[in-house]
Amino acid sequence: MGKTTMADVAKKAGVSKSTVSQFLNERYEYMSPDTRIRIEAAIDELNYQPNYLARSLKQKRTSTVGIIVANIMHQFSTEVSRSVEDYFNKHNMHAIVCNADNDPEKEKKYIEMLRAKQVDGLIIFPTAQNADIYKNMIKEEYPVVFMDRKVPDLQAPTVVSQNIEATYSAIQHFIDNGHERIAIATEPLTISPRIERHEGYKKALHANGIKINPEFQISTSIDKIKKELDRLFQLDAPPTAILAGNDIVFIEVLEFAKEKKLEVGESFALVVFDNIPFAHFVHPPVTTIAQSAYMMGEKAADLLLKQINKEQIDRHEVSFPCELIIRDSSKRLKEK
Amino acid sequence: MGKTTMADVAKKAGVSKSTVSQFLNERYEYMSPDTRIRIEAAIDELNYQPNYLARSLKQKRTSTVGIIVANIMHQFSTEVSRSVEDYFNKHNMHAIVCNADNDPEKEKKYIEMLRAKQVDGLIIFPTAQNADIYKNMIKEEYPVVFMDRKVPDLQAPTVVSQNIEATYSAIQHFIDNGHERIAIATEPLTISPRIERHEGYKKALHANGIKINPEFQISTSIDKIKKELDRLFQLDAPPTAILAGNDIVFIEVLEFAKEKKLEVGESFALVVFDNIPFAHFVHPPVTTIAQSAYMMGEKAADLLLKQINKEQIDRHEVSFPCELIIRDSSKRLKEK
DNA sequence: CCGGTTTACTAAATCGGTTTAGTAAATGAA
DNA sequence: TTCATTTACTAAACCGATTTAGTAAACCGG
Hints:
Two copies of one chain form a homodimer.
Chain A: H1 6-13, H2 17-24, H3 33-46, H4 52-59, E1 64-69, H5 75-90, E2 94-99, H6 104-116, E3 121-124, H7 131-139, E4 144-147, E5 158-161, H8 163-176, E6 182-186, H9 192-207, E7 217-219, H10 222-234, E8 241-244, H11 247-259, E9 269-273, E10 287-290, H12 293-308, E11 317-320, E12 323-325
Parallel strand pairs in A: 1-2, 1-3, 3-4, 4-5, 5-11, 6-7, 6-8, 8-9, 9-10
Antiparallel strand pairs in A: 10-12
The structure holds a DNA duplex.
């Protein structure tokens, strides 16, 4: 015998399916107290659980949204996802998180899958490699919000960090502490945050009259970061300070330091873009640039829900400031 | 104008819905090559995407399973989830991860939500507080696999670690390194892994003829761990070694050490139950007990899929060994 | 006590697919 | 040439809800 359906409840309570449906949707005006009690009893007795699929099919809404993160290993993605989930739970909706693993193919697959499942909207950390798909969603007016990364040539609601300003202030902090040979290491410049972080870097050096040394700008894939760092430290004048472009690059820097027996904070100063949960346990405690992950998640969720509810919203970027949290790894330069 | 449906495609291709459905399900024997091409063209032209809700409603399967983790902050849960996802993706199915946040109410809500969404089965890290619900699912023969924690009095497929043996070997390692005053710290003894870890602890001490000191057994909520540790270290004979019962307790131990200016590995030896991603960056590198997360995920997924496919499976526990990874934090005892 | 309103319902259509049973035309064997 | 089989489809029922339009009975004011 299959699961109990609304029809079973209706029969048991001696009413029609319609009335049971009204009951479930709490439209009690449409029935007598007596009927209401009988339906309640029947539901109880049969241990009836409604089938959301059927409901969603008819209502054309699933009360579910999708989140596609580019890389679940980033602390930032996790924090944003959590925030989005909280927001939607408050609004009696659900959020499904998928990990595109930085792979445009996977991203595409997930977008298609989630849309086939009829989720009401998507928050995407875009790989930015699926321009046609993004464009199409916008054209169809399917509810989407982009997060963290701007998609070129696309007028779409996007929530980002103020990367240029944040990087600028980190570099300024280095300079204020006497550093001049400052390096930056990020993954390849394929997405806007990385490009902007390099931009902020150059701007700060320039504003302080420090000549930009292209050798000090690393932008390569994770597996090559250590090799590049090695190259830097072979120079006659190696960097005295490094900005690690995100938490994953940070790990590489740590491993590099360990292998080469360099002391973070002693051999070179370090600032990391991104919050590190272990920031004050690693030795020494590391200076970080914290993004407003929770607020950004809320904002994105809010923009998405407004679209779902057919409210008008601005179709461009909203940016959030970052906070430089100074710990021991970026102390004043000792020797010149 | 709404989304394109199968009916639109059928009309455009000049065939019936049935034939389009056959096409989508790749049952090409049922149509001429000519028809096939016309349907293909129509789908393309209309940019048609099938609606999974409708399909699932009729087929009574969603090709989706749910994973309910007790606490997403545990590295172990994340690894297992990832493994389960990989497994189901290989089988053309999807996995949805939900976080019960150690809250039985949330767990209940998620079980109900996922079942209402008609997921084909569930993998649960149970809070063990919803016995009636678990029992009911087993009785209904709804596909479920429990993970990490045994539910008392329930004959259900369950995948767990060999906690007693693993803890035993960690304590033996301490003893072999000259420690006798060994403490264990876990969260409250409400679920089987914690109980078993205390059990393995006692067994190892007993086997080595060391008297068990109940004061050295901490089992309290996270926010009280530090207070208890403080109590321990106020003793005339404080512990020289500590086993942290999981990665979250580990953080507390680290914070405690930091606050009290104690040196991990010097002031006391430390082993952590659970893999720590930063294990070799914290100072000193910390000895851990690694669970076979990936294999456990695969096994659970396999047991679940078999149930979904109505294959017969054993309705009891499968246990996996752990590995003691010795690093610097559990070095030989120096002073007596 | 008559016509209109309110109350308390129900029947049937609908959502967008899948699936079953059936059919007309073409092919093939005797 | 005729009957059986195969080929290439289609109509309609179905999955389990929601929702719209409709109705019978009770109520009610004049």
